[in-house]
Amino acid sequence: MLKKSAWVSFVTLFAVSLGTCSAWAQNPNSKGIWISNEDIARLPTSGKAWDNLKSVANGSAGTPDLSDQDDPTNVRVMAKALVYARTGDESYRQEVIDLCMRAIETENGGRTLALARELIAYVIAADLVGLPPDKDAQFKAWLDGVRRESLSGKTLISTHEDRPNNWGTHAGGSRVAVAVYLSDQQEIERCAQVFKGWLGDRGAYSGFHYGSLDWQADSGKPVGINAVGTTKSGHNIGGVLPDDQRRAGGFKWPPPKENYVYEALQGVLAQAVILHRQGYDVWNWSDRAILRTFQWLHQEANFEASGDDSWEPHLANFYYGSNFPAKVPSSPGKNVGWTDWTHGSGTGGSGITGIEGQVRNAANDNAVSGATVLLRVNGSVRFETTSSGSGRYSFSNIQAGSYELFCTRTGFSDFLTNVSVPDGQTLFGQNIILIPTGDSEAPAPPQNVAAVPSE
């Protein structure tokens, strides 16, 4: 009969030989650029998201080509790395190692947009599986140089700091991934500074060169995401990505469903995840700018993510506790993906319970500021707030349950409806429509671009 210590050793070896889930099979030196070993170990090995991920991991990745901005090999390599990290199956690791090494120098002849889109997934994959020391040294030497390599007159770094559109956001994602892989703390801090400026803090960084300013809230102080509460011609544009929304043309309403916005968000979310894991409070920067973008796309543009953008809302829901439509299985993006498995429902998101909306005038659809908004239970007030200059109101971190949503404002009839707020979710688009009484109609918001204080 085997002694306990010998039996444990036998079981351990047997599990490894079968390629089953095992923490000892993961890369012990992983920096957790995208996700930690501990988080991966808790993820399911069944369900639609996992089945889709494993199906891709079991297929051919293709040939790495960092000069091709539409090459899907990168996200397939990421899929293989994730499955290795969860199962410990060495065959996936060997494929990833080979593909990462074959990616070296394939950026030649391409543009920085291609490098920016493609590179990040290889860096994440290498971190997940752990390259052998000799290959890791070669990979690191190449990474250190490729971020400064001139491609059509631009580098990955210069593109990040110059372009405020999808080119720059993708460049930022790959740039910060490389910085973390190389343990380049100074570069990580610079990436955070530039990203903070792009989100709206011009005091942190403002060196971008913008295109048409038609969708900017303040053309004299352009930003990557318009500030909270900003309007144009009476319409809410807080949360707009002006330098990608402009691709649909000049300002118009209803706002066009511009695909370049979701394209830019691919790079935005990549930067946010990586910087958050480095200790930066990115999800709350500039009045939760990233959340406001998703809210604007859903509430104002009526525009849900689809296709190779369908992985994006899983991250918003995970970090904000929101409930944006999120497809399972989702499709990977041009840079990363598989978030329906790594960050999907039930994987431990922030789970913020709340309700958000806007108070509007039924007569002219203008926003109504200064309205008192209450959440009551049997007539007893539990939560209270006041609508902002753009008519916005929100309640966060409230208890789940059924409430009376009540609103009152001088010059309008009182509003009352019942709402049920689920645990761990934020209800968006709970708009309040007030009917004027004719006594003292609330003034319409200014017709030019204006900013109001944060809610």
Report on this structure.
The protein has 455 residues and is of the alpha+beta class. The protein folds into two domains: 339 residues, Glycosyltransferase (Alpha/alpha barrel), CATH 1.50.10; 81 residues, Immunoglobulin-like, CATH 2.60.40. It has 15 helices and ten strands. Strands 3, 6, 9 and 10 form a four-stranded mixed β-sheet that branches. The chain has a four-stranded antiparallel β-sheet with strand order 5-4-7-8, with no helix packed on it. β1 and β2 form a beta hairpin. The radius of gyration is 24 Å and the shape is globular.
- Low-confidence blocks of residues: 1-24, 440-455
Distance between the first and last residues' Cα: 69 Å
Number of domains: 2
Corresponding CATH architecture of the largest domain: Alpha/alpha barrel
| Subunit organisation of the chains | single chain
Whole-angstrom Rg: 24 Å
Q: How many strand segments?
A: 10
By CATH, the topology of the largest domain is Glycosyltransferase
Structural class: alpha+beta
Number of helices: 15
Q: How much is the average pLDDT? A: 89
Elements, N to C (H/E): HHHHHHHHHHEEHHHHHEEEEEEEE
Which CATH C-level class of the largest domain is it?
Mainly Alpha
Instruction: Tell me what portion of residues adopts beta-strand conformation.
Output: 5-15%
Q: Profile the largest sheet.
A: 4 strands, mixed
Shape: globular
Helix content: 25-40%
